[in-house]
Amino acid sequence: MDDPTLDCLIIGGGPAGLTAAIYLARFHLDILVVDSGKSRAAWIPCSHNHAGFPDGINGKELLQRMRDQACKYGAKIKTEVVTKLERDEDSGLFAVTWGSGCRQARTVLIATGVTNRRPPMDEDLHDEALARGLIRYCPICDGFEVTDKKVGVIGSDSHGVAEAIFLRGFTSDVTLIAPHGSLELTAEDQAKLKIANIQCVDGPAEAVAALDESIVVDTAEGHHTFDSVYPALGSDTHTQLAEMVGARLSGEGCVGVDSHQRTSVQGLFAAGDVVIGLDQISHAMGEGGVAATTIRNDLAKEKPFLR
Ligand SMILES: Cc1cc2nc3c(=O)[nH]c(=O)nc-3n(C[C@H](O)[C@H](O)[C@H](O)COP(=O)(O)OP(=O)(O)OC[C@H]3O[C@@H](n4cnc5c(N)ncnc54)[C@H](O)[C@@H]3O)c2cc1C
After folding, report:
1. Of 214, 231, 248, which residue constitutes the final position of a domain?
2. Which ligand 1 atom is the nearest neighbour of the CA of 130?
3. Ligand 1 nearest atom to the CA of residue 41, by list position
């Protein structure tokens, strides 16, 4: 670990981490982004709700533009999986480890996002269906695109019910399918589905084929064909590195932060989906900008003039 101590090491190069990188590089700080290359934004075939792109933008293209912007101002980006985060109580410095590398940093931003749980189906079929909008994960983002279409939601608990009811605001043809066995719903959820006229189908559910403009789901009650299917099976939040240094988690199992993106550990910040499950690029970017500005101002308390 002979390299000079960084002002900030950002773990995660999605919209949150890259926005922070752009800001921090433009604050003339010495930073490094370490990213394992699995941003959820890379799955977006074309985002139509991201402001400033009236004709939509492909997720990979958006990420590339952000990387180019960060690098233009001096940010360095490394493709690695961070496996260990430690903090020295005496110096307050962090040690960040990946593969065969390790760097010391005054501050660390956790922008590691979440991973959606996928429905049981062939992986190639899943990826092809996702690229074609036959599988979708974000009704806030793309519910508009299924207006008046035939939609299936794979999910069993109140999360699945909430997603089905949200989608009912876009189309009257919504079916809730249990991923395994039968739907076990509370009386309240059953009443909500009845009022919304949402059909229910028992599982196990498996998406088996992507046709020209539809997707076929095999269920305990036979084949069902939909224009789009939304898996509502929850997600896994990547809080492990924050937990290694003792950061407090929120009630929702995300990294807990104050209104300036500071975690409970001094010098450790968090932004994006890892902090709140709103799952929006704009929100992740906003938190990245707030975190970066707080990091800059907190560092300036120790060293007021950074140049
Ligand atoms: C199919 C789909 C469509 C979507 N459509 C839209 C849309 O139209 N509009 C919209 O606003 N939002 C959309 N979203 C949501 C949006 O993609 C996310 O909200 C956004 O990407 C969150 O940004 P983030 O930076 O917090 O996390 P991410 O973009 O997920 O980035 C996290 C990064 O951290 C990295 N990472 C994790 N752990 C480590 C580690 N240990 N070491 C190094 N790197 C690590 C990952 O590889 C990843 O690159 C969509 C999501 C999906 C899945």
Report:
1. 231
2. 1
3. 17
